[in-house]
Amino acid sequence: MRKTGKTCLYGSHRSLEPEGSLPQPAWRIDNTPVIGDDELLIRVDTLNVDAASFTQLEQAAEAEVARSGGTIPERMAEAILDIVARRGKLHNPVTGSGGMLLGTVEEVGKAHPAAASLRPGTRIATLVSLSLTPLKLERIKGINLDRDQVEVEGRAVLFASGIYAAIAPDLPETLALAVLDVAGAPAQTAHLVRPGDRVLIIGAGGKSGLLCLHEARKRAGVTGKVYAMAHSPASAERAASLGLADAVFTADAGRPLEALAAFQQAAGGQAADVTINCVNVAGTEMTSIMGTRDGGTVYFFSMATSFTAAALGAEGIGRDVQMIIGNGYTRGHDRTALACLQENARLRAIFEAWFV
Ligand SMILES: NC(=O)c1ccc[n+]([C@@H]2O[C@H](COP(=O)([O-])OP(=O)(O)OC[C@H]3O[C@@H](n4cnc5c(N)ncnc54)[C@H](OP(=O)(O)O)[C@@H]3O)[C@@H](O)[C@H]2O)c1
Q1: Which listed residue, of 73, 224, 282, 352, carries a Cα 20 to 30 Å from 56's Cα?
Q2: To test the ligand 1 pocket, which listed residue (148, 279, 324, 334) has its Cβ within 8 A of the most ligand atoms?
Q3: Of all atoms in ligand 1, which is nearest to the CA of residue 234?
Q4: Strand pairing report for 135-144 and 40-49
């Protein structure tokens, strides 16, 4: 049973290991689905797992299947249930990342900031990470390998500071969830890219990459240039079908010298003013840094980014670039991300085909 007493706006009252810490860095938190006065209880049906976390869980499941049989979804379900049982939250211990969830408001604490306006029964998506959200899973009903989404039965708790978005009835929920999970990327792109900029997007055919492509083209304008680095032919085709990039090319961003050569060929040897890293695997820091001009900006949205690799790598090649950590939150990020779909019918069609 959850300890009662004074609650903290940020959820530190639920941190068990170490006690009193903030819930994101905590190893384990109290996931008892009984809320305090300023908390929110959600009946959860879908988890949108962070792409870096999902990829890691899938790769580990593949290795487990090769060792001892079963199916990839079965092994992934076991791993997810195990993490949540051990930590009280879906906080992947390897990638350190989480994701977000979709569910129905079950109870609103009487001192919660939205107590006067939010009604039980409202469909919401959380905009704070699963890596800090108390979660209790009853069962996993299915794993969608194409969407990085997991169907579950469970309950979650949102702290008083936890932001969420009510799901608009005109947007399919699984689509809204996928877009909102990466909402920080297009919103930051909107802040960073100026008219006339040369922009390189790495992982341009993924969810955040496609949204950034739209926003980068819009902000760089006709005098700017937008280059889309994709990985597989399939994601290159998705990026190209938007018709927004000046060039779409494939490269493995984990192999910086080769990836840089491919970018230079596409961009006529010019480096980027702004580079946006949207990949879901580790080891792509140097491609981002080497592709950016001295004095330019690298925005690391990828959760697989290593602070050490980026800082020491930039120093190692003597490149004076500003490097930005991809804060998942930017003011108004949910509206910016959803607006991309309203503004661009092709983009919406791609997301509908993928997530509905
Ligand atoms: N900062 C935040 O708050 C925040 C929030 C949510 C997500 N994220 C992170 O943002 C990243 C992108 O998320 P997402 O949902 O957009 O992922 P996604 O849809 O899975 O897209 C990732 C893309 O990376 C590409 N990629 C993989 N390996 C590559 C390589 N070696 N070289 C070049 N490209 C490669 C993939 O291409 P292929 O499919 O062709 O391999 C894919 O298109 C993830 O790391 C995720 O954890 C951050």
Answers
A1: 352
A2: 279
A3: 40
A4: unpaired
Q: What is the pLDDT of residue 169?
A: 85
Q: Which atom of ligand 1 is nearest to the CA of 300?
A: 1
**What is the band of 7 on the pLDDT scale with cuts at 50, 70, 90?**
confident
Taking the CA of residue 52 as reference, the ligand 1 atom at the shortest distance is: 47
- Domain positions in the chain are 12-181, 184-330+338-355
Geometric angle at alpha carbon 302, from 216 and 48, rounded to 5°: 100
- Which residues line ligand 1 at a C-beta cut-off of 6 Å? 50-52, 97, 181-182, 184, 202-203, 205-209, 230-232, 235, 252-254, 278-281, 284, 301-304, 326, 328
pLDDT tier at 120, thresholds 50, 70, 90: very high
Which atom of ligand 1 is least distant from the CA of 210? 16
Q: How far is the CA of 110 from the centre of ligand 1 (A)?
A: 39
For the segment 70-119, what is each residue's pLDDT rounded down to a tens digit? Answer: 999 999 999 999 999 999 999 999 999 999 999 999 999 999 999 999 99
pLDDT tens digits for 160-178? 999 999 998 888 999 999 9
- Tell me the C-alpha distance between 211 and 188, whole Å: 11
CA distance 344 to 356: 17
CATH superfamily, domain 184-330+338-355, is: NAD(P)-binding Rossmann-like Domain (3.40.50.720)
3-state helix, strand, coil in the chain (%, to 5): 35, 25, 40
CA dist., res. 279 & res. 14, Å (int): 32
- The conformation of residue 13, written as its DSSP 8-state character, comes to G
Q: Tell me the CA–centroid distance for residue 140 and ligand 1, in Å.
A: 24
Pick from 208, 238, 340 the residue to mutate for probing ligand 1's pocket: most ligand atoms within 8 Å of its CB: 208
CATH number of 12-181: 3.90.180
